[in-house]
Every structure is written in C-alpha cells, then in structure tokens.
Design brief:
The structure is a single chain. With 361 residues, this protein is of the alpha/beta class. Helices cover 39% and strands 11% of the residues. The protein is built from 13 helices and eight strands. The longest helix has 19 residues. The N and C termini lie far apart (77 Å).
Length: 361
C-alpha cells in the first residue's frame, strides 16, 4: 500500500535539482575580474537570432547559457542543437533541461540544412558546429538523424566546413559509424572532466567509453576533437594525466589503445603511465587532434558548485603542456567552450596539416 503518513526521513535538502530554484540551493561564487563576457546585441546577433527563430531551431548557446553567445552570434556563428531541447541524462554541470523528450522530429535535418544555407549565404559563415542532446531512449541514440543532418548540410553548404559535437551513443559503435560515414570535417566528443570526477559530473557516461569513441574516430581517418572543463574539483596534475591518456589511448596503432580495447568492460581502468614516459611517447602518435579547456561556470545554484577559479596563467600552462604532449591545436582559457573560435581552430589545423603534407612529400 502507498504510504500516506509523513516520511520518517526527508532527503529533499540533499538533492541537486535543475528545476525551480529552492531555498536550499547552492550559492554561486563571485566571478573574478578576468571572467567578463560581452552582452548580446548588434546587427549580427539580431540576424542570427532571427534565422534560428524562423526555422524553429535550438542552439546550445541559449540552452546551456554559454557566456560567449553575444560575441559568437555577433560574428554570425552559432552552435545548432539537434534532436530537440530535452536530454535524457542529468549531468551535474549542464543547464540543458532533462526529461523524456517528445516525439522525434524527422523533418529537423531539412530545416537545419536550410537555415545553415541561409546563414552561409547571408552571413558568409565558413564553419558551423552542430551538437545534440543525448537521446538514450532511441535505439540508435539519434544517429540516423545525425547522419541525415550532416549529409543535407554538406549538400546545401558545399563551401562550409562542418564540425559535429556528438554524444557517446551509449557505446553503440554501429551508431557512431553512421556519423563517421556521413563524413563531417571534424568530429568532437567532449570528455568533460577527469576520470575521478565522473560519478558526480557525468553519472550516465563512462570515461573509457569516451576515449574509445575518439580512438575509433581517429582509426577511421577523421579529425578528432575533445574538450574538458576545469575548476569543478580536479587537480592540475589530473588535467595533465588526462592530456597524456587521451593522446595515448586515441592513437592509431597505440599498444595502450589496443590493451584498452581488450580490457573493455573490466572493472579496473588501465593503469597510468609515469609522466616521464608519457611525454616522450604521446607526440609520436596520430592521436586526438584538438583540445579545448575552459573554466566551469555553475549555471544555476542547483548545479555542481565551482571548486576554484583557474587563473589565466594556469590556462596558458595547460595550453603549452597540451601542445608539448601531442595535441596539434589547444584552445585554453577561462571563457573557452568547445565551440568557441571553432572556425579559427579549424583554420589552424588545416594550416598544420598542409605543412605536414608538404614535409612528407
């Protein structure tokens, strides 16, 4: 029978809820002076917003309350979010609403391609990023919509480079292959945080699964990108360990990557390699190409609290270490997000790859 009497113990005050604000909500720390974002406005911002509204499109810029929305939209750059605005997961850092998504919108790929065609023609956009919520209730995690959106967008905007920021599809590698086969120019999947923080930050994700996804992208010959946030509870040395592990575990032909695949599903993670060995090994691998590192900003008082403000000097150190340990492009700074200056990252990587091709020939 249903209990109708008052419960003996209430856990309400211990629940992190991203719904309505509660009296017990956590307090957001005051931002340091180096964290100042531009206020949205201007002709470019208005034009971009108009196109989004016209085609009933969602953007992660708005849904995740990105601090760079004003600057990016003023430049005519936005990150389109497909598969709706409701995520099946409830990550402790994310401001996208959670729940059971509505019916799948099968017309969405056409609308996205058409809106991007307009943005390409009217604003001269050369690079666009598409991301999505997690749709774990779908058999393919939404990979079919992903593939159709990529193909339609490439057909509609042949002069524009396309970057996709994808979920992990719960380790459904056939679903991932659908995205790879659609051939976007850059495939991004964010690891988000160091391994130790996963239970609190990404309870529905797996650190090793994300590494395997990036490895498969590289194995398919595509450009791979990932990103993390700092200031959410990690230590600086853990960030450096993550940089090393991403390089080693995503490298094509890596012995450690091969061992990781054979160990997949086991309870114990792959043991770390001493840093003295890591730095000499990682740069020689054809591993994950691009890394972004940014400050975690608590979206509401009901999300995970900020542990610390990472200084610009430390972000500069992370960038130098990331480049030294094998990444081709590293974007590291307090306001850096996965899609921040993505067009610039693509240009830099293209230049690097062109120079390497000349040296090989």
């Amino acid at each position: 029978m249903r209990r109708i009497d008052k419960p003996l113990l209430s856990l309400t005050d211990m629940v992190l809820n991203n719904g309505a604000e509660q009296p017990h909500a956590l307090t957001i720390k005051r931002k340091p002076p180096w964290l100042r974002a531009k206020v949205p406005g201007g002709e470019g911002y208005t034009r971009t917003k108009s196109i989004m509204n016209q085609h009933r499109l969602f953007t992660v810029c708005e849904e995740a309350a990105c601090p760079n929305m004003g600057e990016c939209w003023a430049r005519g750059v936005a990150t389109i979010m497909i598969l709706g605005d409701t995520c099946t997961r409830a990550c402790g850092f994310c401001n996208v609403k959670t729940g059971r998504p509505p019916v799948l919108d099968k017309d969405e790929p056409r609308r996205v391609a058409e809106s991007l065609r307009l943005m390409h023609a009217e604003a001269g956009i050369k690079h666009i990023v598409i991301t999505s919520v997690n749709r774990d209730e779908l058999p393919d995690g939404g990979a079919g919509i992903w593939a159709e959106t990529i193909i339609r967008t490439k057909d509609a905007c042949p002069g524009m480079s396309l970057e996709v920021l994808i979920p992990d599809f719960e380790g459904n590698w056939a679903a991932l292959q659908m995205v790879i086969d659609a051939e976007p120019h850059i495939i991004n999947h964010n690891i988000e945080c160091v391994r130790r923080m996963y239970p609190a930050v990404r309870p529905s994700a797996k650190y090793d699964r994300s590494l395997e996804l990036l490895r498969r992208v590289k194995e398919a010959g595509r450009i791979a990108k990932t990103g993390i946030m700092v200031g959410i509870g990690e230590r600086d040395e853990e960030v450096l360990e993550l940089i090393d592990e991403v390089q080693e575990r995503t490298g094509v032909g890596s012995d450690r990557a091969t061992k990781a695949r054979s160990d997949e599903g086991k309870a114990e993670p792959l043991a770390a390699t001493p840093s003295s060995l890591r730095r000499s090994v990682a740069p020689s691998l054809d591993s994950c190409d691009i890394l972004t590192i940014g400050q975690y900003l608590q979206p509401t008082r009901n999300h995970l609290p900020i542990d610390r403000w990472v200084t610009p000097e430390q972000f500069a150190t992370f960038k130098a270490e990331g480049l030294a340990r094998g990444f081709k492009v590293v974007e590291s700074g307090p306001l850096v997000r996965s899609s921040y200056h993505a067009d610039h990252q693509a240009d830099v990587l293209s230049t690097i790859e062109a120079e390497r091709a000349k040296r090989r020939s």
